Amino acid sequence: MGESGLGSAVPGEVKREFVLAKCSYFVDVQLWPLRRILDPEIWLSNFAESEKAHALQLLHSFLYFNQLLIDQLFWAAVQSLSRRVYVSQALGENALGGWRSFIDRLIVTRVMGERPSDVDSGFLFQRMARQVLGLAESQILSPNETLSKILSDGSRPVLFVDDFAGSGRQFLATWFRRQLQGGTGPTSFAEFAARTDGQFFYCPLICTQHGYNRITGQCLEVVVSPAHILSPQYSAVVPDSLVWPESMRESGPEFIHAASRRAGIPDASWRGFSGLGLTLAFVHSVPDATLPIFHWEENGWHPLIKRT
User: Fold this and answer.
1) Residue 60 · residue 11 · CB < 8 Å
2) What is the residue extent of each domain of the chain?
């Protein structure tokens, strides 16, 4: 669906039988993993009877992306660049040849957060660039190696990959981080892009509207092209949330806060990172912006999904 988002229908209240049947179906068709990894019923056992309607609604809104969906989203996000890169070219062999040349020259690098780690999801998506896009090993470089490469050959387009952009902070940290380059001193992607005509692209699978606006506002040289952009209404803690039916719009966030406090989740973080209050997870990770109530494991709380 690209930048149109994941849909915008306001939900109605749901019943337990319907939600659990849907969850079981997702397991049967392998969209969701086995219950030892993602267990709806044990998660529902956290809640009092008076809370069950809200818990079911929150479970109904939960989005889980397995590897097959991730591969397809990654492919779609990168393919969408063809419209942006060669939109001015005539249809036919010239356009096709231009796209092939772009892919052959492309450098794929990862997004590194403010505290780079060997478990950053960017590593996974660099591997996917080889497996899904068929790129050569020589085209998959670290951010520092990428800077070195484009300093010597500024014609090479650069693609940053990752699974999720919530607040945009991790991409901004990667873009503006100054890295030591032999013979030229430290520089950053931002400094290089400001003085050249280089091509830079960022294709996260999912990007919030907040993150998209922040990145495009501060990184004018970067084309941001996610598979999906989530509007602010995908948060479970905003007044006009799509997570809740009209009858729960006010009580829904209150329910999350009360249950989170009972679980021992700190008041500063019950909404998730940057207060984004999302309801999604990937097979390989649960974003910090997702509500902690889904993955919390302390004080006897049973998680819906465990963080890895």
Assistant:
1) yes
2) 67-230
pLDDT in tens, 5-38: 454 455 567 788 888 888 887 887 777 876 778 8
Instruction: Name the pTM for this structure.
Output: 0.86
CATH 1.10.3720 for domain 67-230, yes or no, is no
Q: Please give the single-letter amino acid code of residue 207.
A: C
Which residues on adjacent β-strands are paired with residue 201? 159, 223
Strand ranges, E, within the chain:
63-65, 107-110, 158-165, 179-181, 185-187, 200-208, 222-224, 228-230, 280-282
Q: How far apart are CA 2 and CA 203, in angstroms?
A: 11
| CA pair distance 179, 147, nearest whole angstrom | 8
32, 61, 118, 192, 302 from 46: Cα distances, Å: 21, 17, 34, 52, 7
